[in-house]
Amino acid sequence: MIKIHVAASQQYDVILNKGILSMTGMYVKDALGLQDDPITGKLKNKKICIVTDETVDPLYGRENQTLWRSLTLTGFEVHKYVFPGGEDSKNMETIEELLEFLAAKRFTRTDVLLALGGGIVGDVTGFAAATYLRGIEFIQVPTTLLAIVDSSVGGKTGVNLKAGKNLAGAFWQPSLVLFDSEFLDTLSYDIKLDGIAEAIKAGIIAEPLILDSIKMKRTLDDPDFLMNLASLAIEVKRKVVEEDERDNGSRQLLNLGHTLAHAIEKCSRYKISHGHAVAMGMKIVAIASDRLGWTVENCSEDILEILERFKFPLRCPYSAWELANAAMQDKKIRGGNITLVVPARIGKCRLKTISVNKLEPFISYGL
Ligand SMILES: O=C(O)C(=O)C[C@@H](O)[C@H](O)[C@H](O)COP(=O)(O)O
Ligand SMILES: [Zn+2]
C-alpha cells in the first residue's frame, strides 16, 4: 500500500493499493469521520453520488459491482450520475445538469460526491462539489494513470469554456483519493501514455528519479513500475501544492508544457489528448529554452530521448502563430506578460516572464 498525506487547506490521504475498490465504503466513512447508527451498525441518512462517464460506468459503476456494493454495505444511500465524458462534455452544461440532479435527489450539505473516472470526471465532479450548496465534500477515485499521477491530487477543478481549456473552476480539495492498481489492467497503451507524460513532467520539474526509472523501461505493462512512478509524481505534486495551493507562485511549475498543451488541445478541438499535448508542449519548450540559452544545462536531448522511447507522437501540426493565438487565454498571462515554465536542467525548472508579443517567436524556436 502507498499512502501520501496532503496537508493543503483541507488535509487528505492519497491511497494506492491493489483491490482497494472493494473497501471504498470503509475508507470514505473514515475519511469523512462518520459514525455508524448504533442500532443498525451502519451509516444512516448519508447520500453519496457516484459521478462517472459512459466508458467507466459499465466497468466499475454498476449496482452489482464492487464499488456500489462496498458503499451500500457501509450504509450509504447510493446515487449515480453518468455523462458522456470526453473534453466535449467538460463544460458548464454538464455542471448545471449535475447540480440539478443533486438538487432533485435532495442532496444536502452533509452528503458527498465520488468521482469515478479519469481527469475529466474528476475535474467536473470537483467543480460541482465546490459549488453545490456553496460546497460539499468529494472523493476522488481516479481510474486512469493520468488522473492518479496528476489531476486527482491538488484540488484544481473546473471545466472548459469555448475560449479555452479549464477557464472556469475552483480550488476545491478532495477529502480522499483512492486508486486501485487493478484499474491499470483496463487501460490502453495510449491512455497510459497520457499519464506517463505527466510523470515525465514531474520528473523534469523536481524528481530525476522518475526519469531514471522510466529510462530503464521499454513497455508500460508492469503495474509495480507504474505504481512507483505514480507515488514519486504525487510526492512532487504534494510538496508544490502544500507550498502554493492557489497557484500564485511555485505551483505554476506544474504547468511545464501546459501553455502549449492547452493551445494544441484547443486547436485540435480536443482530438489530441491532454497527456499527448503535454508531451508536445514539453518538447517545444525544452528545444526553445536550449536554443535561447535559458537552460543552465542543455536538456532537450534528454527530454526528447525519454519521450521518443515511448513513441509519443511529437510532431505538432500547428504553426507558432496558431499556437500563440490559442494561448492568449492562458491563466499565466498578467497584464501584457506571460509566465512560461522553462527547464533549467533535468530536475529543476523555473518561471520566466516574457511579453506576450514574444510568445510566437519563442514557440518558433521550439517547433
Ligand atoms: O495541478 C496543477 O497545478 C497543474 O498545473 C497540473 C496540470 O497537469 C493539470 O493539467 C492542471 O489541470 C492544469 O491546470 P491549469 O491551471 O493550467 O488549467
Ligand atoms: Zn496536465
UniProtKB/TrEMBL annotation:
Its cofactor is Zn(2+); Co(2+); NAD(+). Keywords: Amino-acid biosynthesis, Aromatic amino acid biosynthesis, Cobalt, Cytoplasm, Lyase, Metal-binding, NAD, Nucleotide-binding, Zinc. Zn(2+) binds at residues 198, 258, 274. SUPFAM superfamilies: Dehydroquinate synthase-like. It catalyses: 7-phospho-2-dehydro-3-deoxy-D-arabino-heptonate = 3-dehydroquinate + phosphate. HAMAP family: DHQ_synthase (MF_00110). This is 3-dehydroquinate synthase. It comes from Lentihominibacter faecis.
